Structure prediction request, 633 residues.
Amino acid sequence: MKKIPIPMSLQKKTLCDSSQYEALYKQSVDDPEGFWNEQAEQLAWFKKWDRTFHFDFHKAEVKWFTGGKINVCYNCLDRHIESKGDKTAIIWEDDSGKLTKKYSYKEVLIEVSKIANILKRNGLKKGDRVAIYMGMIPELAFATLACARIGVVHSIIFGGFSYEAINTRVKDSDCKMVITASHSKRAGKTINLKAIVDKGLEGIDFIEKVLVVKHGENVPMQKGRDVWLHEELELVGVECEAELLDSEDPLFILYTSGSTGKPKGVVHTQAGYILYTSLTHKYVFDLREDDIYFCAADLGWITGHSYIIYGPLANGTTTVMFESTPTYPHAGRYWEMVEKYKITSLYTAPTAIRALLKEGDEHVKKFDRSSLRILGTVGEPINYDAWMWYYQVVGNENCAIVDTWWQTETGGVMIAPLPGAIEAKPGSAAKPFFGIQPCLVDAEGRELAGDSEVTGNLCIKHSWPSQMRTVYGDHERFKETYFTKFPGMFYTGDGAKRDADGYYWIIGRNDDVLNVAGHRLGTSEVESSVIKSAKVVECAVVGKAHEVKGESIFVFAILRPNLSESHEEIKQHIRRHVKDTLSPIAMPDGILFVSDLPKTRSGKIMRRILRKIAGGEQKDFGDITTLADPAVA
Ligand code: WTA
Prediction:
């Protein structure tokens, strides 16, 4: 694959060029302690750390900057007040596109401090867990930072999830409070979030308070438990001291899908996380003081955590928060925003790029995009056509395309072509970030070294500051999932290829995790939801290649006997059930009723075969299975 030269407009103008990248990377690997000590000086510390890092992958132990005292919220807000208190920190645009709100660093600090005072007033203290469930409104960012300010551990639940997701997550981390909004708005639709929360909290008696942001009409409030944010705001002061926290105190829990039905509570801690997210944000987006940076992800995912709020604000950047979708009310929404706010950097997912590509170039071209310099992508492999469209049509061949590979577990970007330093190859995430030592291993865990092209399991050899520290409440699962298959390394779950130039090409998950429109879902999560629809006795879920979403959900199900409805009615019922209880994202595209599922002798479902059937590659199953109606596949 040919390299795309660095656009002329960026040459010699970026934070680092190729020789600086090579030198810094070398230093970060040869002398990680020296490198990270130097980088960590850029944060504001209440007390300096004693030890830079200590890790033992055999024991699943990871620690950074122990002995240090720090506050992430202080690093994101307070320390900027003197030099840029009046600079815009957050630009928020509502669903309709008619309303914009801008908050300066000073204003964000006040909003955050007030909410932190409300949390304290309601009995929350350092170490308590709070679930946050709302759409992309400014209060979501404020509430998140308010937790960080007082050492309360937030667990943001994506606003597109349904009540079961709330129920299991709130229970798993024993939350004391839920912060939500009356409604969320997306693409002209209004969703009654509070009603979903009420249903999600049924049978849970340990939630002390539900704090509700009014975003729409009034909603019923449960006496003694539910409080309105606007009423509480009247009762608190505008100042709240930032808590002195240990580097390794937990900052947040974010649930992500794994290969069992139960999502994992990924735990990130303070200092390492904020150091790594701010450093990657700076270099990956080649940050400049007057940048207007727009990450179009949702705060409910790790991309939103690290690159809408924490990284950008720690760097004193103006970050854009967007309530809507890329195609509402028209397919030029992103580019209209680029023109309106003079956005310099855009970060989105291949699925959005593919959806917009299909809508035609005219939606892009009618808006002025000359402010754009960096175009980022994340969440799934980007295909050549989508990459080229992003580069040629959106970026006019003037922008760097940064394909960033990373995970909820990694906290920040691990592999990416730094603008101006690494020539891109469409579809490749290119080279590791400073301090990251990726390697490919075969099934036996032998490293595939050398300069020739190799394909294997993607592992990381050395710890990095924003590595996840544990699975909440289940350290054994942390160890088992990431450190057991290939001892002494962190196993990412992805397969990848490294070419002769040392560029990494991510192939995709090697485990039972699906990636639907950039959203991570476990096959067994979807399976248990399908089973709970009460129409099937057994099922197996696999991913099927999809032109826009990357992967779509395909279900093989064995029906319960003696159902009176038609197959079509049952399919509708299953789809609705999955949508209402789990998430609209998880709704199956294809459902095939079968009389049996292909299994190994030990009873494991042979997903590889099912994937082939779903993809139409395999029609003839021979003796392997007794699928009821293979022709439908
Ligand atoms: C996939 C999202 C190819 C990968 C930040 C990973 C990618 C999973 C890329 C993590 C990329 C992420 N190219 N695949 N640039 N970025 N992935 O936890 O399979 O939601 O393991 O984190 O997304 O998804 P997660």
